[in-house]
Design goal:
The chain is mostly helical and about 375 residues long. It contains 17 helices and five strands. About 50% of the residues lie in helices and about 5% in strands. It binds zinc ion.
């Protein structure tokens, strides 16, 4: 606990309104559990307006999307002439990254090098999906295995830090591993499965600092107990250099991407297995999103996921509200996952109780790049491509 004393005065999150007192967007299902949400006169939230703005920047028709795809294919092929791979892709076993692999190989005829980050939490179904994709698409797979003792120490540190950003270390490592693999194999292009239609509406207050190595290192310094070993990471300079050297593409934004249809196609063509909720391909992510975040912070990430699908026309608001009235996932499985997470991370019952009871903190309570001119420079570079 000594690390806490070194922090600035504890920040108190705006008191979470009771469920019946929360104000909900009239278009999506985001509500005042996002402490920074803003509504317009018609009751539409700022996430919906941001979605519309970003959508307007995407190809306006299927033909325009196809032209964008073809332009990417030509550039990848030209830059990879004489080399074995056109690009690097991430492969988690989840639907978005799996569909990118299918799209690139089956429809675009590209030769991606697949990269999987094994952080020790893959479900059997995720492993099955990766094996099926590798076999069916004849992919070369490069697996980056994290050093478990020190990565577990980092995950413990984020729980003990009482911030809602406990998946930030894995998300940071995935991107760092993709960029490092691209450099190692002299590949200039990285293709991601991130997309607007299923991944918009995520509040900063719920999860922040994915690219911020200073934030991750400061949380670990204050709450960790051993040095990190071989953890893929990039400080701001490395990140800026990578963004300068590498081209990042998000092709799911250029096609009429529908998650339900993508799953059906993966099941039919690859023998892919459906793992249920979004990001439930990892046991830790399932527990973090479906148990830890809602119970400790009152943040239910299904709100953001459903809101994205409402805006993209894949889900009705009424159906989303019906889903949100149910528990995030089976309460008995939540209890089993809590025991499993505690045991796997080496957390005692008393430590888990302390983690549940500790007052919520936030990104701004720890040192980070935010506010520095370096950070503004990085933001500029990020939006440059
Ligand atoms: Zn909204």
């Amino acid at each position: 606990m000594s690390g806490l004393a070194a922090l600035r005065a504890p920040h108190t999150l705006r008191a979470m309104p009771a469920a019946e007192e929360r104000r909900t967007c009239t278009r999506c299902v985001m509500d005042t559990s996002d402490p920074e949400i803003v509504f317009d006169a018609a009751g539409v939230c700022h996430h919906c307006h941001a979605y519309d703005q970003r959508l307007a920047a995407l190809p306006a028709s299927a033909e325009a999307g196809q032209r964008r795809l073809q332009a990417m294919v030509e550039r990848l092929r030209a830059d990879a002439r004489g080399r074995p791979y056109d690009c690097v892709i991430g492969l988690s076993g989840g639907v978005d990254s799996s569909f990118v692999a299918l799209l690139l190989v089956r429809e675009l005829g590209l030769r991606p090098l697949a990269v999987h980050l094994d952080n020790g939490w893959d479900t059997e179904i995720a492993v099955h999906n990766i094996e099926r994709l590798v076999a069916a698409l004849d992919l070369d797979l490069h697996t980056v295995v994290l050093d478990w003792p020190s990565f577990a120490d980092l995950q413990r540190a984020f729980l003990l830090a009482s911030v809602p950003d406990c998946e930030v270390p894995t998300d940071h490592a995935i991107i760092a591993a993709l960029f490092a693999t691209a450099r190692r194999f002299r590949i200039r292009h990285v293709v991601l499965g991130t997309n607007l239609r299923t991944e918009s509406h995520l509040p900063r207050a719920w999860s922040r600092g994915h690219g911020d190595w200073r934030y991750i290192a400061s949380v670990h310094r204050r709450h960790g107990s051993m040095p990190l070993r071989d953890f893929p990471h990039q400080d701001l300079w490395r990140l800026a250099w990578n963004r300068w050297r590498l081209r990042v593409h998000e092709p799911l934004d250029w096609i009429a991407y529908r998650k339900a249809a993508a799953k059906q196609r993966l099941i039919a063509e690859i023998g892919w297995g459906d793992y249920g909720g979004k990001h439930h391909e990892s046991i830790y992510t399932r527990w973090y999103q479906g148990c830890y975040l809602p119970r400790k912070f009152g943040f239910d990430k299904r709100r953001a996921h459903c809101s994205s699908l409402i805006c993209s026309g894949e889900l009705t608001r009424a159906e989303a509200l019906r889903q949100l009235a149910e528990p995030p996932y089976d309460p008995e499985l939540q209890a089993a996952d809590t025991r499993y997470v505690a045991r796997k991370l080496g957390l005692s019952e008393a430590q888990m109780q302390e983690i549940w009871r500790a007052p919520p903190r936030r990104f701004a309570d720890y040192p980070s790049y935010a506010g520095s001119w370096w950070y503004r420079c990085w933001r500029w570079l990020r939006h440059r491509r």
